[in-house]
Structure formats: structure tokens, C-alpha cells
């Protein structure tokens, strides 16, 4: 099992998601649940492709923090 940070954003009437640690891996959906399923599938598919090609898996280097201003 691999764990990656995912950023979810509401965009108008839909949602988008991406992982800063998995460049180019993005997903959209009409609901929060749908976009979460879609980004899980997108990351899994990406990881499977890297493994099949013998390439290294992305590192988990991103983190989040709320900053008060």
C-alpha cells in the first residue's frame, strides 16, 4: 500500500483532485466521492505502469500545513 497526499478543490459545480507527489496525475468528478474514487484509480493506474516499466515510485515529499495570516 502506498500513501500520497491528494489536494481536492471545488471548481464550480464539480471537483478536481491531484497529487503533488505524482506529477500529471489528476482527476475530476461531479461529487466529492466521485473525484476521490477517480483520483485513487488514477494514482493506482500510474503506479502500476511505473512498476511494469521498472521505474521508481514517486516519493512522498509533500505535506500540508495551515498558516495563519
Walk me through this protein's architecture.
This protein is of the alpha+beta class. It has a domain at 7-51: Double Stranded RNA Binding Domain. 30% of the residues lie in helices and 20% in strands. It has one helix and three strands; from the N terminus they run E-E-E-H. Strands 1-2-3 form a three-stranded antiparallel sheet, covered by helices on one side. Strand 1 and strand 2 (14-18) form a beta hairpin. The longest helix has 21 residues, at 32-52. The radius of gyration is 13 Å and the shape is flat. 19% of the residues are buried. The mean pLDDT is 95.
Largest sheet: 3 strands, antiparallel
Radius of gyration: 13 Å
- Quote the beta fraction: 15-25%
Rough outline: flat
CATH topology of the domain at 7-51: Double Stranded RNA Binding Domain
How do the SSEs run, as a string of H and E?
A: EEEH
Which structural class do the helices and strands define?
alpha+beta
List the helices and strands and how they pair.
Layout lengths: L6 E5 L2 E5 L7 E4 L2 H21 L17
Descriptive tags:
flat, alpha+beta, 1 helix, 3-stranded antiparallel sheet, Double Stranded RNA Binding Domain, 69 residues
Can I get a quick summary?
With about 70 residues, the chain is of the alpha+beta class. About 30% of the residues lie in helices and about 20% in strands. It has a three-stranded antiparallel beta sheet with strand order 1-2-3, with helices on one face.
